[in-house]
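Progress narrative, Year 2. Work on Nickel superoxide dismutase from Jatrophihabitans endophyticus advanced from sequence curation to structure prediction during this period.
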Amino acid sequence: MRLLRTTTATTVAHAHCDLPCGVYDPAQARIEAESVKAIMEKYQGNDDPVFRTRALIIKEQRAELVKHHLWVLWTDYFKPPHFEKYPQLHELFNKATKAAGAAGGKGEVDPAKGDELLGLIQEIDTIFWETKQAS
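Result:
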């Protein structure tokens, strides 16, 4: 048994929750997206290269969190009946996660892109709360 432990590779798994907790809310993605937009605005108003470098790093981290929270909703909360009732939902999530990626990792610093991301999250939020009220 000891030999098996030393020759078997371990895999670390990360999840939203260790249990299927059922706690979901698009507000998590929205708050991170608001941070992304605010950083874009601050970046525009500051010429200090050190500040700008820090801002880009933090913006990318926040954008990754936006994508994470969207993926959790997309893959864990929404079920086939939701996608049947809201056929645009898959495309909406795809656009939102791509917008988060563009806002974060593609060097984008235009606050209008932050507004676009927030608008997509708002659409998801509206559908999310409609499904919560129906259940």
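Residues 49-77 form the longest helix (29 residues). The domain at 25-134 is CATH 1.20.120.400 (Four Helix Bundle (Hemerythrin (Met), subunit A)).
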